[in-house]
Amino acid sequence: MDDAPILDVVALSKKFGGVTAVQDVSLDVPRGGILSIIGPNGAGKTSLLNMISGFYKPDTGRIVLEGKNITHRKPSEVAQLGVARTFQNIALFSGLTVLDNLMLGRHVRMKAGVLSSVVYWGMAQKEDIAHREACEEIIEFLKLQDLRKLPTAALAYGLRKRVELGRALAVEPKVLLLDEPMGGMNQDEKEDMARYILDVNQERGVTVVLIEHDMGVVMDISDHVVVLDRGRRIAAGTPEKVQRDPKVIEAYLGTARSRSGA
Ligand SMILES: Nc1ncnc2c1ncn2[C@@H]1O[C@H](COP(=O)(O)OP(=O)(O)OP(=O)(O)O)[C@@H](O)[C@H]1O
């Protein structure tokens, strides 16, 4: 049973008007690993992630999490079932502190609603303390202790990306979907983030699905790589195998050629 993929994506397709963003894409996400989705710009990577996390409804196909069909679930339900995500453009509340952003990320784990908080004040307070402790633990894990009371707007870009990772971890995910977590970072920030992703995977046992353009990082930290090009899956396998695949080389060269106008 443990060999069964934690997440199964089966023949997903999505069109936007005349544009086919994703066409008949299937992939298995093995439990406990780091799987990267790569491909040239516009290949359909974010659209695929948006479907898995419930933000886009697929036209056809299905998404199965630990044997449960989650294809038509809302994003909050998908999060509750254990799939958290980060966004390409940081999605934090910039006026709120680091700690409060994490607490908001945690709301899918909170049982006490507004009414029960009024009726069972003590119970809600106990729950709040437990959630705060969980968030403080994540803050320590990500070495954000000194910044916990600062509004995220006051933080440097790389740190905001780290808080975004913390917000997703606050969901206590089984599967973490990361959309370009190193986008726009300098080399030092990228190395830090790569280390945190490895720690999330190895120390916290979270399965990671990563979209990333930096090939060095992808090849370094991934156990599996899936390559998309123009909405289709063109290759999959270990980083070494995928790197040598002529279809993959052609997809990237083709994009470079069309960009340079050759
Ligand atoms: N909400 C949308 N409305 C219309 N078209 C969309 C939408 N989302 C994606 N697309 C189109 O679908 C195609 C795939 O886009 P997507 O963002 O999934 O690719 P990507 O591989 O993530 O690209 P990038 O690496 O540039 O982020 C593109 O042609 C894009 O313009």
TrEMBL record:
It holds the Pfam family ABC_tran. GO terms for cellular component: plasma membrane. Residues 7-255 form the ABC transporter domain. Gene3D superfamilies: P-loop containing nucleotide triphosphate hydrolases (3.40.50.300). Keywords: ATP-binding, Nucleotide-binding, Transport. SMART domains: AAA. One of its GO terms (molecular function) is ATP hydrolysis activity. This is Amino acid/amide ABC transporter ATP-binding protein 1, HAAT family (TC 3.A.1.4.-). It comes from Enhydrobacter aerosaccus.
